[in-house]
Amino acid sequence: MDDSKPAVKIHPTAIVDDGARLGAGTAVWHWVHVCAGASIGENCSLGQNVFVAGKVRIGNGVRIQNNVSVYDDVELEDDVFCGPSMVFTNVYNPRAHVSRKDEYRPTRVRRGATLGANCTIVCGVTIGPYAFIGAGTVVNRDVPAHALMVGVPARQIGWMSHAGEKLGPDLVCPREGRRYRLTAPDCLEEISPE
């Protein structure tokens, strides 16, 4: 055991099934259930009443707020933020009387993306790195890197920096000064510093 790494914190009301993997420094709070087979990275936080299914992969530094269920075939890369009560789906056209467990569609949330409170991510989409999904938004198609998405269904209304600041017409982050450029109508990239 490496004593230099912070311990995993599991609240007494949480259930972590045998076979789940939790990285160093991860905190599992009140009434969380992590199923066997789930893989959660280092320094993550799973808020009250979070559910993590067995075929879920979660990177390092992920923050999942209260009342979020992360279903099979969802992958959250490093530094993803999931706001309170946001929703993932795993079947596109569910019916109570039709079993569709063999029709789960993989959902990918790339590094640094933010998923706002009460948003819905329909299965089978990829959320690009550092994209920002506004509260209450319903995402039913892939989202480009750094895109700011709002509405039902989601529509792009701008671009966001790595630091989570809305970019103006000059495409310069007001917090960090990072500069960006459009390389295509739906493709933003950072300009390397000289």
Describe this structure in words.
With 194 residues, the protein is mainly beta. Helices cover 0% and strands 31% of the residues. The strands form five sheets. A nine-stranded mixed beta sheet has the order 1-4-7-10-13-16-19-21-22, with no helix packed on it. The chain is globular, with a radius of gyration of 18 Å. The termini are far apart.
Chart the SSEs and their pairings:
Layout: E1 9-10, E2 15-16, E3 21-22, E4 27-28, E5 33-34, E6 39-40, E7 45-46, E8 51-52, E9 57-58, E10 63-64, E11 69-70, E12 74-76, E13 81-82, E14 87-88, E15 107-109, E16 114-115, E17 120-121, E18 126-127, E19 132-133, E20 138-139, E21 147-150, E22 155-159, E23 180-184, E24 187-190
Parallel strand pairs: 1-4, 2-5, 3-6, 4-7, 5-8, 6-9, 7-10, 8-11, 9-12, 10-13, 12-15, 13-16, 14-17, 15-18, 16-19, 17-20, 19-21
Antiparallel strand pairs: 21-22, 23-24
Read across the widest sheet, the strand sequence of neighbours is: 1-4-7-10-13-16-19-21-22
Q: Biggest β-sheet, characterized?
A: 9 strands, mixed
The shape, in one word, is globular
Share in helix = under 10%
State the total count of DSSP E strands. 24
Please write the string of helix (H) and strand (E) elements: EEEEEEEEEEEEEEEEEEEEEEEE
Mean pLDDT over the full residue set: 96
